[in-house]
């Protein structure tokens, strides 16, 4: 959906939503237009609101089949949009730049700073209607809900303090269900925090795959409806496992990595999962260094050369200082780097076909690489050669002394030399 015209909507639901949107524009004043889940909308649809958010305060709408230009200058009218950083398929979502520059952007995690307890409790409050035991509480005094929550947490609250008349069995069942919701709440809250942290991180700075599982009210409600007071801990954990297994399967890619990260967050990762997770993170960093799966062969080779230069720069002597460390360690490090580079080039098996002029600036890149190799590797090799030459001359000298001592011993044993003092 990329238009505000209901006639261009793809289905009846979209038609109804666009009619409501245009009604808000037609009303004009004292209106708050709220657009939820904008990550599912088309970028072109969001661009329709750019002119409404800048100084012109105008927007093109469609009312009763006719196109109209709405001028909101001087009117009490606001637009609120809410969405997630990722779509349901796991693709990254981005608000158009021109719209983002004209709007106030708020991150839920930043807004709720200092209100962690209230936000955590909102998971339970929003999920009550999804559970048959807790649903009746939604129509009663809210103070009863908070007192029952305190009871479930172990506080001493008299049932006479409740405004509604609850039997002992009913109170016990409610508090048991609430106690299990606290376990789910803790897991969902951790997932939500990791989701926000991952979404805020730039891809080029990641050290592990992006975390795309969500800890939303929807997730909380889905699991809450399956909770009963007679469940044991294992059954409750299975409810959480099954739910997020299904959520992960909705992702186009990264289901395994997201489930392993979830196990790490929950603290129930076994040894096999731990080894697998470490391997995935290691491969992730290696692939990122190589430029990703879509990088061309030339780019991968240049990335390897850049790593080689960085590694050699760390090993090379500075200000003409001699290498004081053992040459074997330096040779081993360089040999390992060269082997990795050789393997990368061999695996890539580049085939060069000149079909066009070189990319502008490639000569500068090659010049920098050549200078780095000349001023980093060659000084290091020369210093190592000097050290090896000194060691070799010392070894030859010691061998010569040893031969002289043995010759002297043999002459003394044969009596060809008179002992001292005779």
Characterize this entry briefly.
With 422 residues, the protein is mainly α. It is 57% helix and 5% strand.
Number of strands: 4
Mean pLDDT across the residues is 80
Task: Report the uncertain regions.
Answer: 323-329
| Element pattern in H and E | HEHHEEEHHHHHHHHHHHH
Summarize the main sheet. Answer: 2 strands, parallel
Distance between the ends:
117 Å
Radius of gyration in whole Å, from Cα?
36 Å
Helix content: 55-70%
Would you give an account of this structure?
The protein has 422 residues and is mainly alpha-helical. The protein folds into 3 domains: 6-105, no CATH class; 109-289, no CATH class; 297-350 and 360-410. 57% of the residues lie in helices and 5% in strands. A two-stranded parallel sheet has the order 1-4. Strands 2-3 form a two-stranded antiparallel sheet. Strand 2 (58-63) and strand 3 form a beta hairpin. The protein is flat, with a radius of gyration of 36 Å. Residues 323-329 have low confidence and may be disordered.
Helix and strand arrangement:
Layout: H1 12-27, E1 31-35, H2 43-47, H3 50-53, E2 58-63, E3 66-71, E4 77-81, H4 97-101, H5 108-111, H6 116-127, H7 142-152, H8 168-199, H9 217-224, H10 233-249, H11 255-266, H12 271-289, H13 297-315, H14 327-348, H15 362-414
Parallel strand pairs: 1-4
Antiparallel strand pairs: 2-3
Helix pairs in contact: 6-8, 6-9, 7-8, 8-9, 10-11, 11-12, 13-14, 13-15
